[in-house]
Structure formats: C-alpha cells, structure tokens
Design brief:
By secondary structure, this protein is mainly α. The chain has 8 helices and no strands. The chain has one domain.
C-alpha cells in the first residue's frame, strides 16, 4: 500500500476515534453545560422515530416500547449511562491509538447500530450520523486500520503475537 493511502486510513481512523472520544467526554464533563448525562430522557421521549410526512407526535419506531421500558428502569438506565460513556471513550482511545482496532470498530458498529434503531429517524432519509459512524467503523475494522500507523502494527511484530494468532481477530 502506498504511504498516502496508509496515512489516509490512519487519519480516518483517528478522526473517527476523536469523534467517539469527544462524544464520551461531552457526556462525562458536560462541555455544553446541559447537566449530567442521563439516557432516560432520550429512551422515554425521543425514540418514537420519524418518517417522511409523519406527524411529530406519531410513534413510528417499532422498537419504541422496548426503549421506553429500558428508560423507565432505574437499574438499566444506570448501566446504560456507564456503558455509553465508557464505550464512547474506550472506542475513541482505541481507534486513535490503533490498538485492538477490529474490536473497537465492531464495538462502534454495535453502539451506532443500537443508536440508529433507537433513534429511528428517517424524516430526512436513512443516512444519519449514526449510520455514517457505523459504516466508517465497519470499514476500518474490515481493512485492519490499526495496521497503518497504529499500535496494532507494532504488536503484530512481537513473538507474543506469533504465538497467539487468534489475536488477529481483535487487532488490525
């Protein structure tokens, strides 16, 4: 692969990582001054979805009742709050460093997939931010983006890695 392509892949991996990291830090440190992050409001009030021409109050998301039930469960809300914050920060750091890139990418795809289904907003088309983040994360994982200027490339050169070939599914 040419140096230009390798740098472009590394840059895309790092930019996506920065996006995840910032989203997690925003929830932890409340940069916007909106108060402590709590997923309950989103789950109970913003998962109705939207379709072209649907009324603003119409519930078009077939999974809406599931999200509302989660948002109404204090234990689930506490767990989801931690998972979202830690997940975004962890995925961000891993992508920036190019460490366990395939694992981080798949975690990002799963997270964005869950956000996409919970949001279910298609009023302006199916390709929203969650869809695009998930698609980019999937491609980065499939091509092993951590092998381009990432720590995964260094780890794969060690004897430890050569004795543990199953790590290839996590690194890359």
């Amino acid at each position: 692969m040419t140096t230009t392509k390798a740098r472009a892949i590394a840059a895309l991996r790092i930019m996506l990582g920065l996006g995840f990291l910032y989203a997690g830090f925003e929830k932890v440190f409340q940069f916007a001054g909106t108060g402590a992050f709590n997923v309950a409001g989103f789950l109970t009030h913003a998962t109705g979805g939207a379709l072209p021409g649907s009324a603003a109050t119409a519930i078009v998301n077939p999974t809406h009742a599931f999200w509302v039930s989660l948002g109404s469960n204090a234990g689930a809300v506490s767990a989801i709050n931690v998972l979202v914050q830690a997940g975004e920060i962890g995925i961000g750091i891993a992508l920036i460093l190019g460490l366990a890139t395939r694992f981080a990418s798949i975690a990002g795809v799963v997270m964005m997939g869950l956000f996409y289904v919970a949001n279910w907003s298609f009023a302006t088309g199916p390709f929203n931010e969650q869809f695009m983040y998930g698609a980019i994360a999937l491609v980065l994982g499939l091509i092993g983006a951590g092998e381009y200027y990432g720590l995964d490339a260094l780890i794969e050169k060690t004897t430890w890695f050569s004795h543990t070939p199953s790590l290839r599914y996590v690194l890359g």
